[in-house]
Structure formats: structure tokens, C-alpha cells
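We emphasize that the prediction below concerns an isolated chain of 318 residues; any contacts that depend on oligomerization or on bound cofactors are therefore not represented. The input was used exactly as deposited, without trimming of termini.
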Amino acid sequence: MYTAWYTIDVLDLDPNRTAIAPADAATVVLVRDAPHARGAHGIEIFFVERNKSNRFMGGALVFPGGKLETDDASEAWLDCVTLPRPERTSLVPFANNATHFRALAIAAARETLEEAAILLAVSRVGANADPARAIADADILALRSRLRTDTSALTAFLRQHEVLLDLASLHPLARWITPTTESRRFDARFFVAALPRGQSGAHDEHETVASFWASPRDALRRFESGEVTLVPPTHRTLLVLSSCTTTEEVIALAQASSLDPICPKLTAQDKGTPNETLALVLPGDPEHDVQQARVGGPSRYVLRRGQWLAEHAPPLSI
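Result of the prediction step, given as a C-alpha cell string:
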């Protein structure tokens, strides 16, 4: 049970906490063009709702993802994956080296399968072959179930169906590091990927209790009305992607984005007034150690009515 004044549901923030090293993690923003069959247009993103019993971000809407596992760096993957996209200059802070980057991409694809029942795969026999025609949703769900007790099930499945885990389909988007004041810290690399044809996605009914597709603007509207909970990295990602109207635009935006780490800093706001509250400030905010902004939009998230709301920094007092 949380008892500290600074702890609000999904975040456990202690300004006096000794910082721990963040664990490597990977998150995937799955995108599709909205189905025209129901008159929709623009893009939709796949969301999962984390089980409220989870210690980290319980009850929040998030993108599929999780921490890097030791096996993700194994050489046993080498004949089962495509090469990740070539590193660009700004990728230097995104991963330690090419091997580390490949492991992060493998973690991203693995977590996409485990949390979203979506398999990012391409045929071994040629790029023009469509693995969705050979692999049914039922097969993917059965594979996900086997993975809970057999970590080698995925590589065996890939070889059996003559497909490769498609790391090239993952486009680096951003790097978020949880605040030093958090009890559990992650160095999360955000990727975007287009939904493979013929797949739809499903939550795991364990770590996640619900899933759905929604446009960025609809998810933001639901957050603003208090229907759902979003943590700052998820909210900011939606703000950034809300201007995109096609999957191609999302990928182009990712290719032009900064991959420098974003580590929010906890600070007090309106200190000494009846409105005193907390703020998580981002690089570029006057109260952050890094003065150059690394993502567009307001420079801080302020705790208001139990939600972290995006706001611009207040005017400096003279």
C-alpha cells in the first residue's frame, strides 16, 4: 500500500530515493491505417491496459513492451531474424553497439508477440511472400501460450513456418528513461511498426486485461475526460503521432525523430501556495538539467486531480 504523499497510483516517486540503474527495455507502438469499412480515416494504435495488480504502471494504458532478457542477446537468434534497420548517426545514444541494438529489437518483437499476439515476421523465401497467409491467429495465440513455459518455442516456430522475426520492420522512435526518483527504473527504447497484414492483436489476460485499437486523438480525448490513465511517455508519444494521417507518415516521423534519452526530473510546482503540487520536467524545461528539448510539446507534466497533465513551464519569477 502506498502511503507517501508523492505516490500517485501508477508512479512511485520518492524525492529522497537513492537512484538505481535503469534496466534495458523495449516498447513497440503498433500502427495501422484505420479500416475504411467503418468509415474511419487516419491511423490507429494498439493499446493494452495493464493489470492493476502490476507494481509498475498498474491500470495504465500502454504500448506492448517489456524488459530486455538475457536470451535476447543469444547468437541462437542469428538465423531466425532479419537485420535491424541500419543505424543512423543519432542512434549512438539509443544502444551501446550493434549487438545491443539487435538484442533490443529482438526484445521489442518478442514482447509484441507476448503482450499483443502480433508476430512481426517475413518469409525466409522472399520479401514478396506473405507469412500472414500461412500463419493463422490461432497459431500465434498457441505460440504465445507455449512461450510461457518454453523460451525456445519462438525460434522453433520460426524455423517450422520458414519465417524470420522481422527486426527491419521496427523503426526507432524515442528513448525514455524513468525518473531517478522511481522505485523501478527502465531505459525504454520506443519503436514503431506497421501491423502485419492479416493480424489483429489480443492482450494476454495476465499482465494486461484489455486491448483495443484507437486513434491517437481518441485516446487523448479519453484521457482528458478521465476515462483512462496515461503516463507521460505514452501521452507524449500520442501527442507527437496525432499529426500523422498514414502509417507511412508515422514511419517518416520516426526516422526524423531525436533518439537522445529523455529522463523526466521530479520537482515541486507552486511551492508554498495552496496549489502546491508536483511536476515531471522534460529536457528543455527551465528546471531540467538538459536545456535542449528532445521532444516537441509542453516541457512538463504537472500532477492535477490524480493525472499527469502536459503543461508549459510557468513564468520565471523576477
